[in-house]
UniProtKB/TrEMBL annotation:
<keyword id="KW-0325">Glycoprotein</keyword>
<comment type="function">
    <text>Induces bone formation in conjunction with TGF-beta-1 or TGF-beta-2.</text>
</comment>
<keyword id="KW-0654">Proteoglycan</keyword>
<dbReference type="GO" id="GO:0060348">
    <property type="term" value="P:bone development"/>
</dbReference>
<dbReference type="GO" id="GO:0008083">
    <property type="term" value="F:growth factor activity"/>
</dbReference>
<dbReference type="Pfam" id="PF00560">
    <property type="entry name" value="LRR_1"/>
</dbReference>
<keyword id="KW-1015">Disulfide bond</keyword>
<protein>
    <recommendedName>
        <fullName>Mimecan</fullName>
    </recommendedName>
</protein>
<keyword id="KW-0433">Leucine-rich repeat</keyword>
<keyword id="KW-0339">Growth factor</keyword>
<dbReference type="InterPro" id="IPR003591">
    <property type="entry name" value="Leu-rich_rpt_typical-subtyp"/>
</dbReference>
<dbReference type="GO" id="GO:0031012">
    <property type="term" value="C:extracellular matrix"/>
</dbReference>
<comment type="similarity">
    <text>Belongs to the small leucine-rich proteoglycan (SLRP) family. SLRP class III subfamily.</text>
</comment>
<keyword id="KW-0732">Signal</keyword>
<dbReference type="Pfam" id="PF13855">
    <property type="entry name" value="LRR_8"/>
</dbReference>
<dbReference type="GO" id="GO:0061975">
    <property type="term" value="P:articular cartilage development"/>
</dbReference>
<dbReference type="InterPro" id="IPR043547">
    <property type="entry name" value="Mimecan/Epiphycan/Opticin"/>
</dbReference>
Length: 309
C-alpha cells in the first residue's frame, strides 16, 4: 500500500517539473519577439500589399535600375517620371499625341515591302524601312517633301501622296529613285512640277494649281517609259512640250488651254508621221475650240475629247 502512495507522489513531482519546464520555454520564446534576423524583418515589409511600404528599398532599387536603362536608351526621363508612370496605372490609358515619335511601322502598316500611312494626319514623310517598295501616304496633312525623305530608300517603285497639302518639293527629292515607276501627287497644292525619275511609267498630278510656267520645256522629254500622264484640273495655258513617244493616255481636261500648234502632238515637217501609241487625249473643259486646229491632230489615230464648235 505504501509503495503505491510513493509511486503516485513521484509521478506528480515529475509532471510538475515538466509543466514548469514548458512554462519557462514558452516565456522565453514569446519574450524574443525582436530576435528575427534583420534581413527577414526587412523582407517582411515588401509583402504588406496595399500599403506605402511597397515603395521600399528593393522597389526603389528596381526603379533606379530602370531609370539608368532609360537614360542609356537616349531619353532624359527622370526617376520621378519613371516612378509616376509605374505607380499610376491610369497614365497608361492616355492615347499618344500627334507629336509622339513612334516607329513608322507602329504608326503605319508595314506589309512585305509596302507601307500604308493613309488618313493618320501626318504632316511630314515618315522614316521608311530601307526595303520599302510601295508607299501609300494618301489623305494626310503633308505640306513639303524634302530631298532627305527618300535619300536612302532606293528600292521604291510606287509612291502615292494623293490628297495631301503639298506645296513644295525640294530639288532632287526623287532623283535617286531609279526604280520608281508610279508617282501620284494628285489633289495637292503644287504650282510647279519637280524633276521626275527616268523610269516613270505613270505620273498623276491632277487637281493641283500648276501653270504652264511651272513645267520645264524638257520635263517629259527623257521619260521614255512614260505611258500615262494626268494633268487635269490645273491652270495650264498650253499643252506641255516634248511629250515622249511612249505616251498612251494624256489627260488635260479642265485647264485654261487656249492654243495648240501643229507640233504639239505631231511633226509639222513630216506629214507621214503617226503617233501609234497614243490612245486617248482628253481636253474638255478648256476654252480652246479644237476644230480650229485640224492639222494639230493629223498624226493621231483618234481625235481628242473636247469642244469642236
Amino acid at each position: 500500500m505504501r509503495s503505491d502512495v510513493h509511486g503516485n507522489d513521484d509521478l506528480s513531482s515529475t509532471l510538475k517539473l515538466m509543466k514548469d519546464d514548458l512554462t519557462n520555454i514558452t516565456q522565453e520564446h514569446f519574450s524574443c519577439t525582436q530576435c528575427t534576423p534583420p534581413l527577414q524583418q526587412e523582407s517582411l515589409q515588401f509583402y504588406e500589399y496595399d500599403t506605402d511600404v511597397s515603395m521600399g528599398s528593393l522597389t526603389q532599387q528596381d526603379y533606379e535600375t530602370q531609370s539608368k536603362d532609360i537614360r542609356k536608351g537616349g531619353t532624359n526621363a527622370s526617376l520621378d517620371t519613371s516612378l509616376m508612370l509605374q505607380s499610376d496605372d491610369s497614365q497608361l490609358d492616355v492615347p499618344p499625341t500627334k507629336d509622339t515619335n513612334l516607329p513608322t511601322c507602329l504608326l503605319c502598316v508595314c506589309l512585305s515591302g509596302s507601307v500604308y500611312c493613309e488618313e493618320i494626319d501626318i504632316e511630314a514623310v515618315p522614316p521608311l524601312p530601307k526595303e520599302t517598295a510601295y508607299l501609300y501616304a494618301r489623305f494626310n496633312k503633308i505640306k513639303r517633301i524634302a530631298a532627305s525623305d527618300f535619300a536612302d530608300i532606293t528600292t521604291l517603285r510606287r509612291i502615292d501622296f494623293s490628297g495631301n497639302r503639298i506645296e513644295e518639293i525640294e530639288d532632287g527629292a526623287f532623283s535617286k529613285l531609279l526604280l520608281l515607276e508610279e508617282l501620284s501627287l494628285a489633289e495637292n497644292r503644287l504650282v510647279k512640277l519637280p524633276v521626275l525619275p527616268p523610269k516613270l511609267t505613270t505620273f498623276n498630278a491632277n487637281q493641283n494649281r500648276i501653270k504652264s510656267r511651272g513645267i520645264k520645256a524638257n520635263a517629259f522629254k527623257k521619260l521614255t517609259n512614260l505611258a500615262y500622264l494626268y494633268l487635269g484640273h490645273n491652270a495650264l495655258e498650253s499643252v506641255p512640250l516634248n511629250l515622249p513617244e511612249s505616251l498612251r493616255i494624256l489627260h488635260l481636261q479642265y485647264n485654261n488651254i487656249t492654243t495648240i500648234t501643229d507640233d504639239t502632238f505631231c511633226k509639222s515637217n513630216n506629214t507621214r508621221y503617226i503617233r501609234t501609241r497614243m490612245d486617248e487625249i482628253r481636253m474638255e473643259g478648256n476654252p480652246i475650240v479644237l476644230a480650229k486646229h485640224v492639222n494639230a491632230f493629223s498624226c493621231l489615230r483618234m481625235l481628242p475629247v473636247g469642244t469642236y464648235y
